[in-house]
Write a structure and sequence with these properties.
The protein is mostly helical. The protein has three helices and three strands; from the N terminus they run E-E-E-H-H-H. The protein starts with a strand and ends with a helix.
Amino acid sequence: MPIEPIQIAVNRYAPEGSEKILMYDTGASGPLTLGQLVQAVCIRTAAAHEAQSVIKMNVMAGGSDKLSTASEYLSQIVKGTADWPVVRAYLVNTLGIDSASLPDRIDEYEGETTSAYDRRIQAANALKAKVDNLAQDQQENMIDLQTLVNRRDNAYATSSNVVRALGTSQMDDAQNF
């Protein structure tokens, strides 16, 4: 339902035919003044930005967990202490690293043409590339979060400014009597 203006009066201090005093009917909560309408829109907008911020923070928390686990596994791979089947499953299933870019094993075993060191380096390089992407995603998420917070703050500031302007206007009207 569209919001329709309802003229309730004309400002008696303004020249005739100007400055109509309007209220706005939302259909649900009854008529609102322009100031109330602006405040309602600002607060609804701020609440939406707040909800989006919470979602973004949850995404970032998940990204931080992935980065932390990936960093720990990277350290284990380089040291040669990683439980490779578990780490490999995490890298493929959770981080989405292509299994073809990872070795089947990272320890020494007979019949292999590449050394355990070379296989660990291969695994570490694949993981470092993914960690770099995760870190970049986290930076982008932080920028998005800051933008949402700024938008939320601006909506609250606009609402506050409207309240201040309405209060000042009412004080001026009262002093004119």
